[in-house]
Sequence to fold (338 residues):
Amino acid sequence: MIIVLKPKASEADAKEILAGIERLGLTPLHMPGVERVVLGALGDERVLRELNLSGHPAVESVKPILTPYKLVGRELHPHDTVVNIGEVPVGGREFAVVAGPCAVETTDQLMACAEAVKAQGARLMRGGAFKPRSSPYSFQGHGHEGLRMLKEVSGKTGLPIVTEIMDANDIDRMEEIVGAYQVGARNMQNFSLLKALGRSRKPVILKRGLAATIEEFLLAAEYILAGGNDNVILCERGIRTFETATRNTLDLNAVAYIKQRSHLPILVDPSHGTGIRELVTPLARAAAAVGADGIIVEVHHDPKLALSDGHQSLYPQEFKQLMADIKPFVEAAGRVLA
Ligand code: PEP
Ligand code: MN
Fold:
């Protein structure tokens, strides 16, 4: 429920109403704005009748939140959220670029990739230490040893790290290393992982599930916010359709739709979205044009040697071209490249 207070409502009025909401077992929210204070009540709204809020002298209006995703939606929170990964803002005027290899392989590989992407202006680096592979016989990532390499390279280059978490038990080990946790498509509805990340304060990049509807995607994000962590960045990475020519179908509808319905920033992953190196840059341009807050792109210093996703990873020279090619689209969308 959204409870808008009258301009003359006092701090004491807000406190009294919030206490009433809490007493009924609902979660109270306090959102002081420039013009007026908005309060929220999350939970079974029927019990609120007891408080007779519309009869309260300090209350201007009481209306239900129509979307099932209450915290992620714009009804309670109309303004865009900016999530900082280290010192890099995602969701503001700056178009964010996260780039790096699919997987952490060696310190030298990671260093070469980091230098290549940093030289072209990427301010965030990606690389998976834990790899959720379709086959148990494929390279699974170097795990904790990979995290050590990420820490070393992040320290040397100053680039915050985006890396995937697959198991909530790894949070303690990862917390001081990561700039942002990535929740992979295959774990979008791993609810115990989402709840555990709700207890962290580190940013979480939540990728859309392979066959998740937009509503399911936003409700997965809702789990993290409901747990207390507001630092969530969404990521459209393509969905399964009848199409087999490309690895996935990059759903740019979802980006435009989500920008309207949710205040959370959203990135586009044109690497997994297409699965084809030559299509990464055109779809990165489209992502910027549609209003995404940034991209996450696979770049490898030598893709033919990559242990995973080499076929869709850009060569450093191609990444350089991508950065030049997206610029006019980023600017046309009212954004800037750092
Ligand atoms: C990845 O980013 O390398 C990855 C595994 O992505 P997704 O979870 O989107 O498949
Ligand atoms: Mn990959």
About this structure: The longest strand covers residues 94-100. The mean pLDDT is 96. Residues 316-332 form the longest helix (17 residues).
